[in-house]
Design a protein that fits this description.
Layout (H helix, E strand, L loop, with lengths): L1 H7 L22 H18 L2 H14 L5 E6 L5 H12 L4 E7 L2 H9 L6 E5 L2 H6 L4 E7 L7 H14 E10 L3 H10 L9 H11 L3 H7 L5 E3 L5 E7 L3
Parallel strand pairs: 1-2, 1-4, 2-3, 4-5
Antiparallel strand pairs: 5-7, 6-7
Helix pairs in contact: 3-4, 8-9
Length: about 240
Amino acid sequence: MRAQTVRSGRATLATRADYLRELMDDPDCDPDRLRRTLERFTLVNRLIAAWGTVYRERVRPALAAAPGPARLLDIGCGGGDVLRRLVARARADGFDVSGMGIDPDDRSLAVARAANPVRGVEYRLTDSTRLADSGERFDVVVSSHVMHHLTPADLRTVLEDSGRLATRLALHSDIARSRLAYAAYAVGITPLAPGSFLRTDGLRSIRRSWTPAELAELVPDGWRVERPAPFRLIAVRDLTT
């Protein structure tokens, strides 16, 4: 069945297509297309990722519970747009907050560092396990569109790491796999896709993503899976409750 699906080019969404690989994950991929993809995520995330809702309902209350200056960590930050947006939004709300973005791919961090800077935001070439082992701690830990890249074992490691890193809130946001999400993205991304990997990789991302029921069976004790918006899911561990 898998071979038939790959040869025919037809997308099946009944099961997670964990065998697919995104073009941007290839270390030899076209660097200009990769840069454009990462840069355009700023708009894509604003349009589809529901971070405004997640900030209001989850991140802002966690920051409000912090007794002093707060730290925010973005795991697998890519081009850094989500981290910059969250820190800027928190500052506008009067919070004293700094942010760190980590990513194991220096190509992504090069794009993040070239973007318009936000005061107090830094980027580091590392992963969640090494950072947790180093003793770093943050009030809020997030990720965006990371979970679908991971195997079940790697996903559990990242969730356990973020549980060690976070003192108040750990939250991982991603796509909820569905046929409707696939169809809507295939049409909606067309104007932004030329010269980038956005269309091919976005559709592969949806096929690699988890359904809420699948994710709920994988998260460790103390975590919940929620639906903040259509086509979205979040894995949450709230340490303030």
